[in-house]
Amino acid sequence: MLRTVDEELTIDELASRAGVTVRTVRFYASRGLLPPPRLRGRVGLYGADHLARLDLIRELQNLGFTLTAIEGHLERIPEDAPPEELALQRALLAPWTSDQAEEIDRAELDRRAGRALSDEETEQLLTLGILERITDDSGRERLRLTSASMLNVGLQITELQLPSEMLLQAKHIVEQHTSQMAGELRELFAANVLRPYVERGRPESERERVRTAADQLRPLTIQVLVNGFQRAVNEVIRNHV
Predict the structure, then answer these.
(1) Which CATH number fits domain 11-93: 3.10.129.10, 3.30.365.10, 1.10.1660.10, 3.20.20.150?
(2) Contacts of 117-125 spanning 24+ positions with Cβ under 8 A
(3) CATH 1.10.1660.10 domain locations along the chain
(4) Which residues pair with 132 in a beta bridge?
(5) 196: helix, strand or coil
(6) What is the pLDDT of residues 16-67, one digit of tens each?
(7) Structure pTM?
């Protein structure tokens, strides 16, 4: 929820609202990630724009951005950008899936699968990229579940007893083409919606339209891609009968 621009907070209040430490706020400010506070006497006061920037920084961190990458992204946003503009930036960066990777052990994997998985089945889940091997701070080997929603799909695939090499090649094909489509569609949206919006000076009157377009294009794009793939498969089948 956006706060009013007139709201004034001390650095302690800002840190508390943003869920970070005062030390973190000062560190971000020293790196130029936050604009200077407004001074009242010798007291620095912060507002909704600072809170919105901290929210955006957290979103970028959750997406795996390094500090250098975050600095580069924020450099492209005017320092006097209002909270609503920063909220738009967050909306544009929102992930298309709520899935988050999580660390689990073998017992937890078996519990989620509903049965004890064989070493071969676990290896196939690793081949599919649904699981990754990691080492924790104590040196113990653990598993990272990259997508909880894909675990059931992966288990059904392992039951088909297909060669691991085939699964690896299929994974490569899917990732190659989906990455290419994602890049091209992103560039299409940027060229026709985002860049014109920025070039016109990020007018307030267009901000909600851009945010709505980004939100609504997510489910529509997925629906179009699924339908397009299904039609392409049908065409391949017809051509090879």
Answers:
(1) 1.10.1660.10
(2) 121/155, 121/158, 123/164, 124/154, 124/157, 124/158, 124/164, 124/167, 125/151, 125/154, 125/155, 125/158
(3) 11-93
(4) 144
(5) helix
(6) 999 999 999 999 999 999 999 999 888 899 999 999 999 999 988 887 888 8
(7) 0.65
How far the first Cα of the chain sits from its last, in Å, is 57
Residue 134 to residue 2: CA distance in whole angstroms: 39
The neighbour count for residue 91, using CB atoms within 10 Å, is: 14
Bridge partners of 142, per DSSP, are 134
Residue 141: C-alpha distances to residues 103, 131, 132 (Å): 10, 13, 10
Q: Which candidate, 111, 110, 66, 73, places its Cα nearest to that of 92? A: 73
For 61-100, how does the pLDDT look when each residue is reduced to its tens digit (9 = 90+)? Answer: 887 888 899 999 888 888 888 888 888 888 888 777 767 7
Contact criterion met (CB below 8 Å) for 104 and 142:
yes
DSSP assignment of 102-125 equals: EEE-HHHHHHHHTSPPPHHHHHHH
Local confidence band at 240 (pLDDT 50, 70, 90 cut-offs): confident
In angstroms, how far apart are the furthest CA atoms of the chain? 81
